[in-house]
Write a structure and sequence with these properties.
single chain; alpha+beta; six-stranded antiparallel beta sheet; 3 helices; 30% helix
């Protein structure tokens, strides 16, 4: 007898599952993609030297974070600050997103106790990485202007 009572459940459950599967919409929802290729994140770092010095600056639309130090004498300092939208727009105003693919990197200088300058610029579509791109003066101008704008908002010890 117990098997006959479960027959109805055995029939109803698969029907319920099948109806649930077929009622689901098979169309994928479209993700909204921003039409503009806008800058979302910037990172500038200077790393290397005989003492293992480093300076790293990270900038987002609403904040700036900077850290510096030296591994040889185990020093480390950090600074953070909020920024407003006008400051963000001023920082990124020199960067032409279309030209970022044209910027060329140069070989690392750390092997000869040099300091490498690294830029990371993320847009809504792509991340761009540049190492020692100052060797490309034609396209480096916009990165130099970004550094000058950064110097206006950073404390003196992080410049």
């Amino acid at each position: 007898m117990p098997t006959t009572k479960n027959v109805y459940l055995k029939l109803i459950f698969p029907i319920f599952l099948l109806s649930a599967f077929f009622s689901c919409d098979s169309k994928k929802t479209k993700q909204t993609v921003t039409s503009e290729n806008e800058i979302t994140f910037i990172r500038l770092s200077h790393i290397g030297g005989t003492m293992g010095e480093y300076r790293i600056i990270k900038i987002t639309r609403d904040s700036v974070f900077a850290e510096k130090g030296a591994t040889a004498n185990k020093t480390h300092q950090e600074w953070a600050s909020a920024i407003n939208m006008n400051t963000w727009k001023q920082l990124i105003s020199s960067i032409n997103v279309k030209d970022l693919d044209k910027i060329k990197s140069s070989p690392s200088q750390q092997s000869v106790d040099g300091i490498d300058e690294t830029f990371q610029i993320r847009t809504s579509r792509k991340a761009h990485f540049f190492v020692n791109s100052f060797a490309d003066p034609e396209h480096y101008k916009q990165l130099q202007q970004l550094k000058e704008q950064l110097d206006k908002i950073l404390p003196k010890e992080y410049k």
